[in-house]
Design a protein that fits this description.
64% helix, 8 helices, mainly alpha, single chain
Length: 202
Amino acid sequence: GQVNILHGIKQSSLMRDIGKGGDMTIDIVAMLFDYILDDQNIPDSMRALIGRLQIPLLKIALLDREFFSRKSHPARQLLNRLAATAVGWDEQQGDKDPLYLMVQSIVQTIVEEFDDDVSLFETLLNDLETFLHKEEEQAVDDLMCSERGFVDPGGDRRRGRGARCPHGQAVGRRQGLRIELHAGVGEARVHRRHLLEQVVVG
């Protein structure tokens, strides 16, 4: 499994003088990541990506008391959304898959750019929601192409799940990935929210 580095961070010289309140903050954030990093429904590669957010999320929790008191805090929402979305991802798609690349980009941006401006998380959350919405729309388009057939520019009417839509994507492959992905996200969202709210009492 993926390593939760926060459990041992209290012993480091950097955290020596943060006091009991800081110790409790570390423990709670560590528990948040325990739920994610121990979740076998999240593929290893996605857990590895999300695990890179441990230090940035701890930094937010130490700097911003609203991280725990406000359920709508953008950093909390983004972490929840990333974890819920990852549940439905098919690892066989590989690291060139658009969803994987999107999550990778979000994580890399946080690691490289976050200092103390929480609005970065809000921007990235909006980017993720926009991406997922477009993927969902494409899934619907693919499904319609597959089930009803379509007329290509040459006038050849093609049908079936192996057909190719005008945008050039194989319907069968995209349909299986996208529909399964968003069904998984829908089912996982409530479950994930309940799990994380057991740890963070808003």
